[in-house]
């Protein structure tokens, strides 16, 4: 092993057929999803409802957003930790990002847009919501597949009622000659599940179980990377692990992406009893997802090896 090509993410089709629980295609897709999540913590979903036109429009909207003056963009603020503007960071000079709370709702996107464009920007709202709704829909299908495959489908409904979505829109500018290509440091997501969609500029890298880093390439306008966050790792008693990932910028074009993160806001995240037995003792105590985010947002906890294990791990 040791070559860059040894690792590759599974590419899984999400069509009307494969997302209908009455079909055989659903059961086959469930198996592919769980196998991929257990192996790499992520996979590429090809979601046919996400059309080339939607892809084009959402990235046109992101370009107009990021071209606003910095003093406007920094107005993106939130009472929730890590939900607001991030940028102008000396050790991450290529990176800039804003957060849209309640991202899958028209209201959430409008509230964000009204801060950026006080006179309104209906086209931005329309283009963003078209994407964020699909991303939330895809996340829900994947989560349902995971719950059903593990035989804990009865808990799925309460999950759906408790999940909320934060969409972080991101721009990574091209590095100047001689500048560091590291655009986003290695981390695991704090979400339950994440969905990532990019313009046609690659840069995302994933760390495999053997410690090797590999790039994600060959994505189409309908491709979304679905990735496990720390919360699903805890919930699944580590059957699924949240992968380390980072962004490295090669080439001379800016990369834009949307990372949509599900958070369980209305109830405690708790490992179902079905995941626990003598061979698999409980690894994580029940926890409040936003309080975990609060914990992670404290400077002294930002560089922990596994923030979730420090926060609510059970010592073995
Ligand atoms: O831009 C990307 O592809 C990934 C961004 C990311 O990992 C994050 O925002 O957590
Ligand atoms: Fe991430």
UniProtKB/TrEMBL annotation:
GO terms for biological process: coumarin biosynthetic process; response to molecule of fungal origin. Residues 162-266 form the Fe2OG dioxygenase domain. Pfam families: 2OG-FeII_Oxy, DIOX_N. Keywords: Dioxygenase, Iron, Metal-binding, Oxidoreductase. GO terms for molecular function: 2-oxoglutarate-dependent dioxygenase activity; metal ion binding. Gene3D superfamilies: B-lactam Antibiotic, Isopenicillin N Synthase, Chain (2.60.120.330). InterPro entries: DIOX_N, IPNS-like_FE2OG_OXY, IPNS-like_sf, Iron_ascorbate_oxido_reductase, Oxoglu/Fe-dep_dioxygenase_dom. The keyword Oxidoreductase applies. Probable 2-oxoglutarate-dependent dioxygenase that may be involved in glucosinolates biosynthesis. May play a role in the production of aliphatic glucosinolates. Belongs to the iron/ascorbate-dependent oxidoreductase family. This is 2-oxoglutarate-dependent dioxygenase AOP1. It comes from Salvia divinorum (Maria pastora).
């Amino acid at each position: 092993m040791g070559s860059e090509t040894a690792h590759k993410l599974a590419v899984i089709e999400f069509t009307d057929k494969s997302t209908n629980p009455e079909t055989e295609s659903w059961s086959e897709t469930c198996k592919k999803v769980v196998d991929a999540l257990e192996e790499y913590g992520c996979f590429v979903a090809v979601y046919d409802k996400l059309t080339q036109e939607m892809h084009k429009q959402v990235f046109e909207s992101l370009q107009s957003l990021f071209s606003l003056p910095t003093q406007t963009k920094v107005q993106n603020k939130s009472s929730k930790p890590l939900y607001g503007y991030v940028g102008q960071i000396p050790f991450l000079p290529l990176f800039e990002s804003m957060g849209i709370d309640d991202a899958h709702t028209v209201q959430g996107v409008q509230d964000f847009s009204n801060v950026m464009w006080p006179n309104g920007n209906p086209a931005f709202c329309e283009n963003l919501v078209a994407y964020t709704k699909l991303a939330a829909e895809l996340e829900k299908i994947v989560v349902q597949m995971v719950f059903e495959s593990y035989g804990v489908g009865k808990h799925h409904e309460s999950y759906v009622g408790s999940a909320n979505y934060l969409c972080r829109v991101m721009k990574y500018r091209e590095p100047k000659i001689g500048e560091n290509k590291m655009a986003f440091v290695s981390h695991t997501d704090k979400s339950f599940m994440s969905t990532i969609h990019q313009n046609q500029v690659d840069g995302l890298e994933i760390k495999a179980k053997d410690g090797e880093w590999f790039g994600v390439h060959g994505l189409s306008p309908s491709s979304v990377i679905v990735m496990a966050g720390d919360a699903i790792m805890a919930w699944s008693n580590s059957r699924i692990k949240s992968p380390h990932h980072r962004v490295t910028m090669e080439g001379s074009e800016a990369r834009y992406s949307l990372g949509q993160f599900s958070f369980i806001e209305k109830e405690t995240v708790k490992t179902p009893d079905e995941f626990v037995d003598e061979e698999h003792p409980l690894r994580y105590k029940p926890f409040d997802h936003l309080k975990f985010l609060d914990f992670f947002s404290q400077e002294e906890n930002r560089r922990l090896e596994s923030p979730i294990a420090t926060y609510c791990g059970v010592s073995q």
